Amino acid sequence: MTGLIGVYEKLAGLYENLPLPAGQILGVATAVGLGRVRPAPLRGSRALQRATGAAAIAAGCALNAWALLERRRRTSGRFELEQPESLVTTGPYALSRHPMYVGWWFIHLGAGLLVGSAWVAATMPAATLVEHLGVLHEEHVLERGFPDEFAQYRRRVPRYLGLPRRSPRRPTS
User: Fold this and answer.
1) Which residue ranges does UniProt annotate as crossing the membrane (predicted)?
2) DSSP letter string over 123-137?
3) What is d(CA 139, CA 101) in angstroms, rounded to the nearest whole number?
4) Most buried one in 8, 17, 88, 138, CB count within 10 A?
5) Of 108, 17, 119, the residue nearest 71 (C-alpha)
6) Is 4 inside any structural domain?
């Protein structure tokens, strides 16, 4: 019985540190559910939709895994996703301040394409907007926890997508 409790505790600890944004999970479930109740099939090649959807899901999972591994790599003690020891600015965090959310966008889009449902065109923006409010809160927490470092990071790296901004070069005399 003790072994079973240990396994449960490890699984519970793993779940606590999984980046499962409620907005995207609800959005994917809503898109799939609406697709069953009121189908809205995408036009075009189903084979291409399935291949593109699978590729988007794989890309989203890979981005999430890379970001999670980078966060763990930068943690010296017990890993807690919601309580970072330091501001992680390397790996995918050098490209996006919130790469796990971007990864979930790919997963959401991919799920819609995979099942061939046009509902994803409505559920993805709605889910992303809801999550954006949480992201603003997360950034406020990071600002308080790492004031100078986060200010520099924010100037250099886009919130979601885009090219990282370079610091202006100072003229040499």
Assistant:
1) 51-69, 102-122
2) HHHHHHHHHHHHHHH
3) 13
4) 88
5) 17
6) no
In a domain, 2, yes or no: no
8 part of a folded domain: no
Enclosing domain of residue 32: 21-75+84-156
Q: Give the span between the Cα atoms of 112 and 31, in whole angstroms.
A: 7
- Look at residue 9 and tell me if it is in a domain: no
Number of domains in the chain: 1
* Contact call for residues 64 and 54 (beta carbons, < 8 A): no
Length of the chain: 173
Backbone angles phi, psi at 15, to 5 degrees: -60, -40
Closest CA to 41 of 126, 104, 107, 114: 114
- Reference 32, options 53, 62, 15, 17; nearest CA is 53
Percentages helix, strand, coil for the chain, rounded to the nearest 5? Answer: 65, 0, 30
Instruction: Collect all residues with Cβ–Cβ distance below 8 Å to 157 and sequence separation of at least 6.
Output: 89, 93, 94, 95, 96, 97, 164, 165
Q: What is the per-residue pLDDT across 102-129, written as a single tens digit (0 to 9) for each?
A: 999 999 999 999 999 999 999 999 999 9
pTM: 0.82
